[in-house]
Amino acid sequence: METKREKILDTYSGLTFKNRKDHVVELETDHTPQEITANKRSVPGLMINRGCCYAGCKGVVLGPIQDAVTLEHGPIGCGYYTWMTRRNKARGINGKSLIQYSFSTDLQETDIVFGGVKKLKQAVKEAVEIFHPKAVFICATCPVGLIGDDINSVAKWAKEEFGVQCISFSCEGYKGVSQSAGHHIANNGLMKDVIGTGTNKPTTPFSINLLGEYNIGGDAFETERILTKIGYQVVSKFTGDGVYDEIASAHLANLNLVQCHRSINYIAEMMKVKYGIDWLKVNFIGIKETIRTLREMAAYFDDEGLKKRTEEVITEELTQIQGDWDYYKKKLSGKKAGIFVGGSRSHHYMDLLADFGVETVVTGYEFAHRDDYEGREVIPDIKLDADTKNIEQLSPEKDESMYRRYIDDDTYNELKGKIELDYYKGMMKDMKKGSLIIDDYNEAETEDALSLYKPDIFYSGIKDNFMILKSGTPAKQMHSYDYDGPYTCFKGAINFAHDTFDEVNAPAWKLLTPPWNTEPTLEGSLGNS
Ligand code: CFN
Ligand code: HCA
Q1: 344 Cβ closer than 6 Å to some ligand 2 atom
Q2: Does ligand 1 come within 6 angstroms of the Cβ of 485?
Q3: d(CA 10, CA 20)
């Protein structure tokens, strides 16, 4: 009998089938990772959900830093596209935050013909004079790379002219295969020019940086509340509610916590090599995951007082939510979910759903790498370059081998047999037989997955959200939380369950009939023969 995976792929013509078949996996056994192809160029013509390199650099990593002007050098559309759609929150410094602005040079045709450097210099000047930012980050878009405007020398000029930090990021949209390339470029720039330049020394030994927390819907606020209550000092956050000087002082913290494992793991590793700071992969999304994370952190610092305080806070927070947790578990248990977002979140939300007895049956990422799906063995302590402090600038194309970056393959293979390797779990390990995993999912595949798996709720991106709602499936948009949140830690988990419960039970769904209830679906002809 044809499997669900085969049904989805059968609608493709030959060449597309050949490309897509390795990106779609149906698990053959419970909790057993299978090989998947990821981090590859998309097929032209398919309606995909990915963003571009510029979106990853400007929109994702740099944009949330609240006292920097992130200036888009390019046509206004790119500035508009990355303008607050992500809904990062920031407290503001002395009542001021720059993240609600969209700064752009608004390049026109004449600038493309005659060059945009003059306009860029003027824009930097105005930004500095009007907004007095801590730094200006110039982010290039596609046309800038094509016409060759020298943004590096403009950044150098601005530094001398205005005495303000100015960094250029050559993150033209066409680079790499997705926004992931932009994460690398932003990370490299922050590592090279910002981290290590600050002097804010932490005052406790339990000092941490929270990496890969972008404060969507206030998530970072809730995580910080719990960490501070236990006694940790949050030196910096990358980059939600981010503050330039705090990020500059990140090298003075004692431990890096990596929440989003896709966008910022590079900085964690580079800081390990350059400053000897260990990092832990954490997850504050999900009640059980939060508890696991807090205990791992306490175990890392190995301090009796800290361990005791951790348990006290866990008990206190659990006591406050237990009634709601039981209630929503009863209401949601047995439901099935679909989740498709960019990188880390699909897996993180799977953990949170499991807390309420909801199984994720259909999932995937836009641009994750193989290890995010399959898990990966890693060498626990990369000390090899610590003496030389030789930080290799990462190439967006080479990141498949990130865990082996500082050693060649021969050394890796030699070590592999001899030392105990750490294992980082990918999403497949948490899924059951028959579940569907799609990499770089597109609209047609999402539609097919909906009709084949009929999830009770679907957590989506911005672009696919309306198509899912129109199919009659309750859906929540997970890039901005549909203006809800926070969803982290204990109270956030209850917020999430509450919003999910409301969505699933909205009376509107009774008025809609999914097309697959009245029309035959998946009628494509075999294109792979
Ligand atoms: S906040 Fe993060 S958690 S940073 Fe990344 S991989 Fe995007 S912007 Mo959209 S919501 Fe999404 Fe992740 Fe990390 Fe956000 S799942 S796609 S690039 N992402
Ligand atoms: C991005 C940002 C994005 C877009 C979401 C979407 C976000 O990577 O370009 O278009 O579905 O969270 O706003 O991921």
Answers
A1: no
A2: no
A3: 11
ipTM of the complex: 0.97
Tokens, residue 446: 């999402």
Q: What is the pTM of this model?
A: 0.91
CA–CA gap between residue 94 and residue 111 (Å, rounded): 37
Are the beta carbons of 105 and 116 closer than 8 angstroms?
A: yes
Q: Parallel, antiparallel, or unpaired for β 278-281 and 475-477?
A: unpaired
341 lines ligand 1 (CB under 6 A): yes
CB hemisphere CA count around 266 (13 angstroms): 28
Q: Which atom of ligand 2 is nearest to the CA of 460?
A: 11
Among candidate residues 5, 183, 309, 369, the one labeled active-site is 183
One digit per residue, the tens of pLDDT, for the chain of length 529 reads: 789 999 999 999 999 999 999 999 999 999 999 999 999 999 999 999 999 999 999 999 999 999 999 999 999 999 998 898 888 999 999 889 999 999 999 999 999 999 999 999 999 999 999 999 999 999 999 999 999 999 999 999 999 999 999 999 999 999 999 999 999 999 999 999 999 999 999 999 999 999 999 999 999 999 999 999 999 999 999 999 999 999 999 999 999 999 998 898 888 888 988 898 988 989 999 999 999 999 999 999 999 999 999 999 999 999 999 999 999 999 999 999 999 999 999 999 999 999 999 999 999 999 998 889 998 766 554 433 433 333 344 444 444 444 444 345 565 666 666 665 666 789 999 999 999 999 999 999 999 999 999 999 999 999 899 999 988 999 999 999 999 999 999 999 999 999 999 999 999 998 888 777 787 666 555 544 4
